[in-house]
Amino acid sequence: MYGINGEIEIENKYGNIFAGNIAGSSVINTSYGNIRVIFNELNHEKPSMFSSFGGDIEVVFPDDAQADLKIRSPRGGILSRINLETNERKTQVQSGQDMKRIILVLISVIFLSPLFGQKDILKGFWWIEIKHSEPHLYLNSERDRSGWNYGSSFDLDMLDGYMTGDNVTFYLRSEAGVIEFKGNITGQSGNGTYEWTPNKSYISEMEKIGYDDFSDKEYLIFALKNFRIKTLKEIISLGYDNIPSDKVVAIIVPGITPDYIRDIHNSTPDLFL
């Protein structure tokens, strides 16, 4: 897309996204594609956000741009070439000509910050909004100031006691644990606070099969995705018995299932000889 003066929101799984000559705020998310954005003008009232689990992100700013930058990659690498002064992160400064350029190369990045050790109650804020007739659920954490957040389309039928009104309480119960939500909900949106209590038996079972380094926030994602231990064991039984922890998360987030893996095996068997 090119030459848009307004708000942009794009989400996909595998494709590359290019947005040129933009004059507005942008929210662009992709699981494995690359993102390239060229700003003609910045919107200082609304922030822009870009995320890619396994792709490159390149953002080009106007020559007179002023902005605060926050760059995090807990598990992957970041290559940044920035000639824009910021107090958020010390970066190597290089001279530019016509445009100020930021290039973030994210290698197998998952946006969750690893917090190893005992898994305790995790608290934070949630909000729900309807986009294109589909509910989207967003969470962030109040435990640290790392800016962790999660957002995805969501099936409201998974929520026990969900209803519109003020001061409502509802739950998401899964094998990984229980999330208690409190807040206010209208027909099109809602917001409030949550408390996430992990299932210690679930964590213990994960450790028994070799995964003892998932963070509490990753276990929260497992609950939101209703990811079961037997599903992971089934994936392992298909020949993937040494999957790194970060790759397990990368499988869960886009919803890759054992049936999907079997379909890939059956349609392209030569790839797995």
Number of helices: 5
Q: Could you tell me the number of beta strands?
A: 14
Whole-number mean pLDDT? 72
Form type: globular
Q: For the report, how would you describe the main beta sheet?
A: 7 strands, antiparallel
Helix/strand class: alpha/beta
Low-confidence stretches: 71-118
Spatial strand sequence of the major β-sheet: 10-9-8-14-13-12-11
- CA radius of gyration is 20 Å
Number of domains: 2
The ordered string of helix (H) and strand (E) elements is: EEEEEEEEEEEEEEHHHHH
Please report the distance between the alpha carbons of the first and last residues. Answer: 40 Å
Q: Roughly what fraction of the amino acids lie in strands?
A: 25-35%
How much helical structure, as a percent, in the residues? 10-25%
Word description of this protein:
The strands form three sheets. The chain has a seven-stranded antiparallel sheet. Strands 2-4-6-7 form a four-stranded mixed sheet, with no helix packed on it. It has two domains: 8-105, no CATH class; 122-260, no CATH class. It has helices at 200-208, 216-224, 229-237, 245-252, 258-267, and strands spanning 8-12, 17-23, 26-30, 35-41, 49-52, 56-61, 100-105, 122-131, 134-141, 149-153, 159-160, 165-174, 177-185, 189-198. Residues 71-118 have low confidence and may be disordered. The protein starts with 7 loop residues before the first strand and ends in a 6-residue tail after the last helix. It is built from five helices and 14 strands.
